[in-house]
Design a protein that fits this description.
296 residues; ten-stranded antiparallel sheet; 18 strands; eight-stranded antiparallel sheet
Length: 296
């Protein structure tokens, strides 16, 4: 920041580069990690979907956010999509033929997905449970490989079902052609898709194993993931986002110091700043508390 942009109230933020990166998703319709359509992830039978994420708050009025899917309603290319409904209720939707006429929905009756806390959400769909129908289960775990604990009862429907092999990309984050209110604000650490329950791994987006800032990577199954829009692979963690409430210039080498090795120029100064958030502003003008003796 340079003069004249030294006013009180100048927006500021600080961060640390720490630990491993994650997929940072903003609630914008272009914010996602995507894989161009491959027959490799055309799962038409039993499916096992897992996502390790920290889901942020939803926009006011949003009924839910879609966190992953192979789904494009343009041209009736609907396969499946995993979402979290307002209040933390996980939902899996799929189509047997790509159209809305073949659409199926299963929603947990238990609100299990936390806000602003890391958790692994798992959904499994048994398309033919042997009793003339299908069975959907949701789980939570601490790791992408488990162990998992089932949350809520089995969700059962009839008749037996299947999943359409849609010509659509695999997406984590913003879904193709989706409304902005359905886009998640989240940190995603890993995503896995398996053909069959505990079956063959057909997609493994391990975002923590990548280099911070790269725009693309190839996962262990051979799929190329692209980071799109405002999403990014990042190990940058913001500590505070606020405004500058105080500028404190100092001249540690004297205001008439000569240039010295190490980049210190003539009269070079340093400035300490105070950054505060909205709570400091809201607290301005509040009368200080009196002694407990006077308030008793």
């Amino acid at each position: 920041i340079y003069y004249p942009n030294v006013d009180l109230g100048t927006p500021a933020r600080t961060w640390l580069n720490a630990s491993t990166p994650r997929l940072w998703l903003r609630d914008e319709i272009t914010s996602k990690a995507t894989v161009a359509h491959q027959t490799q992830f055309d799962v038409t039978g039993d499916i096992d979907i897992r996502i390790d994420m920290q889901l942020g708050p939803m926009d006011a009025g949003a009924t839910g956010v879609i966190v992953a899917g192979v789904y494009d309603f343009a041209g009736n290319q609907r396969a499946w999509r995993l979402s979290v409904q307002a209040g933390g209720f996980p939902r899996l939707e799929w189509s047997t033929d790509g159209t809305l006429a073949g659409f199926q929905i299963g929603t947990s009756t238990v609100p299990v997905v936390p806000t602003n806390a890391r958790a692994v959400l798992r959904a499994t769909l048994d398309v033919n449970n042997g009793a003339g129908g299908w069975t959907l289960r949701f789980y939570l775990g601490d790791s992408i490989t488990g162990p998992f604990a089932q949350v809520g009862p089995d969700i059962i429907g009839t008749p037996a079902t299947s999943i359409f092999a849609a010509n659509a990309p695999l997406e984590v984050g913003a879904e193709m052609n989706q409304a902005a209110t359905a886009v998640p604000r989240a940190n995603v650490y890993q995503f896995q898709l398996r053909n069959g329950i505990n079956g063959t791994l057909v997609a493994d987006g391990n975002f923590t194993a990548q280099t911070s800032g790269v725009p693309a990577f190839v996962d262990p199954t051979g799929l190329q993931w692209l980071i799109q829009g405002s999403a990014r692979l990042d190990n940058q963690w913001y500590r505070i986002v606020g405004t500058i409430d105080a500028w404190k210039p100092v001249w540690p080498w004297g205001d008439l110091s000569a240039a010295v090795p190490g980049g210190i120029g003539d009269g070079e100064a340093r400035v300490d700043i105070d950054i505060a958030g909205i709570l400091r502003r809201l607290g301005q003008g509040a009368a200080p508390l009196q002694s407990p003796l006077r308030r008793a």
